[in-house]
Amino acid sequence: MSATRRRFLHASTVAGTGLLLGFSLPELRADDSAVFEPDAYIRIAPDNTITLWVIRSEMGQGVRTNLPAALADELEVDIEKVRVEQAMPGGRFAGIRLRTSGSGSSSGTFMHLREAGATAREMLIAAGAASWSVEAATCKAQLGAVIHMPTNRQRSYGSLASSAARLPVPPRPRLKSPSEFRYIGKPALRQDRAAIVSGKSQYGLDIQRPGMVHAVVARCPYLGGKASHFETASPLAVPGVRSLVPVNTGIATGVAVVADTTWAAMKGRDALRVEWDAGPNRTFNSDDYIRQLYLAADQKGYPIRNDGDAAQALTQSPRRIDAVYRYSFQAHAPMEVMNCTADYHDGECEIWAPTQTPETAAREVADLLKISPEKVRVHVTLLGGGFGRRLFSDFVHEAAEISKAIGKPVQVTWPRSDDLRYGYFQPASVEHLAGAVDSDGKALAYWQKSISSDLSMFGRNNPPEDPNHYANDGSPWGSCDNPYNFPHLKADYIPIDCPVPTGPWRAVEYPATVFARESFVDEMALLGGKDPIQFRIDLLQPGNTTSFGGDPLDRSRMIRVLEVAREKTGWGTPLPGMAGRKVGRGLAINVYHGDSYIAEVAEVSLAPDGSDFWVHKIHCVVDCGLVINPTGLEGQVESGITWGLSAALRGRIDFKDGAAVQTGFHDFHVLRMNEMPAIETHVVPTDFPPGGFGEHPVPPVAPAVANAIFAATGKRLRNLPFTWV
Amino acid sequence: MASFLLTINGRRERVEAERGTPLLWVLRDHLQLTGTKYGCGVGACGACTVHENGAAVRSCQIPVDNAAGKNYTTIEGLSADASHPCQQAWIAEDVAQCGFCQPGMIMETAALLREKPKVSLEEIESTMSQHVCRCGTYNRMRRAILRAAHEGSRS
Questions:
Q1: Between the CA of residue A592 and those of A51, A514, A710, what are the distances in Å?
Q2: What is residue A461's predicted lDDT score, i.e. its pLDDT?
Q3: Given 3-state DSSP classes, what are the helix, strand and coil percentages for chain A, each rounded to the nearest 5?
Q4: CATH top-level class for A205-280+338-413?
Q5: DSSP assignment letter at A384
Q6: Residue A531 CB-half CA count within 13 A
Q7: For a Cys staple, A356 with which of A123, A390, A535, B78, CB 3.0–4.6 Å?
Q8: Which H or E run includes A344?
Q9: pTM score
Q10: CATH number for the B85-154 domain, one of 3.30.210.10, 3.30.499.10, 2.40.110.10, 1.10.150.120?
Q11: Up-side HSE of residue A575: CA atoms within 13 Å toward CB?
Q12: CB contact under 8 A, A638 and B139
């Protein structure tokens, strides 16, 4: 491997994925030189197979479709010929980020793959030209072959792979211009489409290993409690049950029932009686906790934003309003319940897990089992949904612990009730808002106080000492990066401890803060007698570029999205009447970390007596930069809106007497087909780099619907989920 | 442990299982037919849907004791090569995201269209609303079902 190549590899940088910096390939051995590996992710073999190692987890967001498109386009190969492999922590991927979070799996790796593909293409052209002793400029690449244009001679990539591998790396390969794209920006079907509709795709629960047994854990029903005593005779009498293993790792400890089949393990768990040490949270009730959040508004919080003097402007203004918004605890409830298969033997552990964070899982399992990290191998399966829940490795730890205890490969399955009752929930929160407009009805001052528990994933028991801790961290999202240019703007954060484990959920902190912000901006527009879209456009003047909490903000992109929303959604025109039902339209916007700009308009109708309401349609207008796969983008819009609407209409987890109340889809209600609104996506074409999109459509849904209900009825809904009737 | 003779995807299968074991777990853990998914275990999500003598049923609600003498089809038996009109419609409409619930959805649809080739939108919605998809692919699914029904009416 040449020094030039190593320098190229060291210099490979990707915006937003700093962990990709500085990786290098192991020295190529003589017997490796038959294949061409211009990059840790790509292999071109003499038999013309192209392998792409995908460094993110596929959980429905389309990473196994979008990344092959980026590579195939620049490399000039048929996308159907690109074989996708899942990267594993360690080895050639040591030090490379494999974590899937923050809606960045396509946007964060896109440019790197394009550069890698273009580099390989130029080296293959050089190798082909050398084989004919002609100038590289007289050759071109086309669908997996190098062609000498004057003579039309051709050589396949595979036949050139080993000679290309010995050539110097071009420092600045030419990237295609958008007009040359073959795949990028074109609708693409997923590569595993036949497998996925045939039940052949392998999720975590589908892993089978020789000699594998199954386990289900009886978990302490009280937050933070543990097992103090359990009897073994009854569960062991259940046919198929093999053993009972205390489980001390993970998020909810207890006793594992190990059996020949999943069903036997479940039956064994039914028969198991455990005495629980309830611990300190035996009396925790979420209603009491949320009351505590309401009452905390006067506590000194952490300053987040302080532009102008909002406190004084509010005190002096005659035209002022105040409002309080509430947001409930939420569960992720992906369709595939938490599960993991672990095989510990001879000081090594092999893991098969539907995880968003394989490198963390590997490191934590190594620590847990007291073995070195290279003794842990983590295979990432397909994920039956992630939504942030699978950024945690609690379900991996316990599988490793149980496998070590029994000396066998084991698959641990969480029954659906476990999946709902134990997790890293979306925190409940209360948002206090105050706003004022001037005598012309223009926005003057805005103050948002966000009160919730900090995400417990940060493991913080005591409030941070640095008063600017949260502001420097860009938190809370949606308040810290409030896109509006208020003359006076204040934002505070008041963390209130909570025993409920909390973590990222789809769009993390945005849904609660944006629900409050976008509802309240409509309240302010009403106070000022302004149209909600015009009020927002005025508030985004002068359309400048700035940054908050480390995120860039281009207000002109948001203004453009609002203008398109006004143009495309029938804004300002009457909605068709529906048999005497009241109808209304509502809008909400958000900017997600400065890379995607979104507006949603909801259309609702209500019975004349207000006894029910129905969301008929949601328009989504988006500028997310270059769109890699339009079909995939629309899919994410539909998915995010369904998720947001599900949470707005139905989603809540309550805690009573120290335990989560909801146990299944019968009491944790999610949206079903008969409640789906029509969804229309309008893309505002721009040539900015691709922004993320997996989470972005979620936050504006609830406030757009609340604003539409207000438009129809004059009734303002400030509590989520919306309680009706 | 008892012995059961089942007919799955046209094959006779001898299974040793405990009485009362739901068909779902017999399919998954005994026969390694993992295309049928566990989603809730109480018949509330539809992920485990298979055909029993051609009709859609929740395999998590059928004790293996009751399965003898009936013909079952799982997603693996719907077609050998993803060529069933429902599978083709699913591909054409790019329905699946995470994909986990989709085998159950496709099996439900296949049974629905066999029973009612001219299915109405209301019938589609009331049947499919017994299923859960957390990725929110419902609108594409509705289109795929209408496409499959349309293709079926032409053939």
A1: 33, 11, 26
A2: 62
A3: 35, 25, 40
A4: alpha beta
A5: S
A6: 11
A7: A390
A8: strand A339-345
A9: 0.94
A10: 1.10.150.120
A11: 23
A12: yes
- Pairwise CB contact (< 8 Å): A336 & B141: no
Q: What is the mean pLDDT of residues A128-137?
A: 97
Cβ–Cβ contact B139 with A under 8 A: yes
CA distance B3 to chain A (A): 14
Q: Do A670 and B137 touch (CB under 8 A)?
A: no
What proportion of chain B, given as a percentage, has pLDDT over 90? 96
pLDDT attached to residue A38:
64
Quote the pLDDT of residue A8: 32
Considering only CB atoms, A199 lies closest to which of B42, B103, B141, namely: B103
| pLDDT tens digit sequence for B4-42 | 999 999 999 999 999 999 999 999 999 999 999 999 999
Distance CA A71, CA A66 (A): 9
Which chain B residues touch A267 with a CB distance below 8 Å? 18
pLDDT-derived band at A27, boundaries 50, 70, 90? very low
Fold type of domain A3-182: Aldehyde Oxidoreductase; domain 4 (3.30.365)
pLDDT over 70 percentage in chain A: 94
Interface touch A673/B21, C-beta < 8 Å:
no
Instruction: For residue A240, report the phi and psi dihedrals to the nearest 5 degrees.
Output: 95, -15
Residue A40's pLDDT is 65
Break chain A into its structural domains and give their ranges.
3-182, 205-280+338-413, 286-330+425-713
Task: State whether residue B98 sits within 8 Å of chain A by CB.
Answer: yes
A686 Cα to chain B: minimum distance (Å): 25
Query: Which CATH homologous superfamily contains domain B2-78?
Result: Beta-grasp domain (3.10.20.30)
Q: Which residue has the tokens 């790509």?
A: A42
Domain ranges (residues) in chain B:
2-78, 85-154
Domains B2-78 and B85-154 share a fold: no
Picking from A63, A189, A196 by the largest number of B CB atoms within 10 A of its own CB, the best residue to mutate is A196
Give which of A263, A383, A417, A421 to mutate to test B binding, by max B Cβ within 10 Å. A263
Q: In sequence order, which residues have a C-beta less than 8 Å from that of residue A626 and are 6 or more positions away?
A: A178, A184, A185, A686, A687, A688, A689, A690
Residue contact B87–A198, C-beta within 8 A: yes
- Nearest residue on chain B to A59, alpha-carbon basis: B98
B4 in contact with chain A, both atoms CB, cutoff 8 A: no
Q: Is it the case that residue B66 has pLDDT exceeding 50?
A: yes
- Structure token digits, residue B21: 């074991």
